Amino acid sequence: MNILIAPNAFKGTMSAREAGEIIQEFIKNKFPQITTELLPIADGGDGTCELLTEILGLEKNQIWALDPFGRPIPCSYGWDNDSKKAYIDIAAASGIALLGNELKNPFVASSFGTGQLIRHALELGAEEIVLGLGGSATIDLGIGILAALGLNFLDLNGRELTQFTPKFLSKIQHIQKSPSIPKVRFSCLCDVNNTFFGDRGAIPVFGPQKGILPTQFDFYESECEAVVNQIFRKQKKIFVDESGFGAAGGIALGLSAFFETKIKFGAKYFFEQADLEVKVKWADLIITGEGRYDSTSTEGKACYELMQLAHSQSKKITLITSGQEGELEFFDQVMTLPDLDFSNTDYKEKSRKNLQNLLAKEFSRLLR
Predict the structure, then answer these.
(1) How far apart are CA 358 and CA 337, in angstroms?
(2) How many domains does the chain contain in total?
(3) What number of other Cβ atoms are within 10 A of residue 50's Cβ?
(4) 96 and 216, same structural domain?
(5) How many Cβ atoms are within 10 Å of 123's Cβ, its own excluded?
């Protein structure tokens, strides 16, 4: 029997690889006659480009960059010298996980550090940047990235604004383009289809997790609207709010004003790069999972897309998750993890034990 182990990240507790290794080790120890293959999956969320770098066997470049609040941290990204393509996660330098339990401050947080990673890749000759948009700490329209790539943002008196200045967006009055702005194209991978503005836009939907209070929604959106008008007027372009512009605080939106930018369905892109269709064809059973499968998972998340691929080849697929919120009947089997108490400091260790206990209790029924 061949089993493909292909989990997504269990957000906040285990990476996709960590979860997959626990499942694979259990099967090897308890059912040595079963052949397994581990292929962690992603859909544009946090860590997508890191996984692609690993799966595709790319060079891993390590440099120092600035975190969302302007502090130096070590970062890495994937580099394919043959195609002159860099694979960069927004979360590597500008991720919300980097802030830990710190107070979130979107009026200060900047994507400038991600711009530094992009600039480093450009110095190597990059012609395309693949950006994984998941896990960002910012709602800055990609202004931080643009500043790192040669655009100058000036205040009312024509003085250049300093990144990480509080209320940076509201102080922008003029924009200057450097003649040395690079020629590069961007492929932005995302797992949400929200536009930037509107009731389902970046600010009301994702703003609270990044520190924007509901009472600040209208103010923040009006400030962003003013900046969007400025950058598109600078380029003599008409702004059209596209699906996916709401991801990562509008990074694809800002980039699209100055660079060739395409928003791509993260799961589909990942599956193609990882040759997942061939792996599914090989398997008799597929095991996938994520931290909490819910109603949003059907909107392009990796587990749902893998389920569709599995059923298109008449293969059985099992989902490991917590909660009962999503349309779980799509899967052939569901193994339910207990909820975690995230107030306990050992919740990550507990999540691993919960997965091990669940496998010990329920795995045998998957083989019937």
Answers:
(1) 7
(2) 2
(3) 24
(4) yes
(5) 9
Prediction pTM value: 0.91
CATH number at residue 12: 3.40.50.10350
For residue 258, give both structure tokens. 């100055």
**How many angstroms separate the CA atoms of 334 and 100, rounded?**
31
Residues 284 and 327 in one domain: yes
Q: Average model confidence (pLDDT) for the chain?
A: 93
Per-residue pLDDT of 23-65, as tens digits, reads 999 999 999 999 999 999 999 988 999 999 999 999 999 999 9
* Sign of torsion over alpha carbons 216, 221, 222, 226: positive
CA–CA distance, 71 with 93 (Å, rounded to integer): 10
Say how far apart CA 258 and CA 231 lie, in whole Å. 8
Which phi and psi (to 5°) does residue 133 adopt? -85, -5
- 194-237 pLDDT, tens digit per residue, is 999 999 999 999 999 999 999 999 999 999 999 999 999 999 99
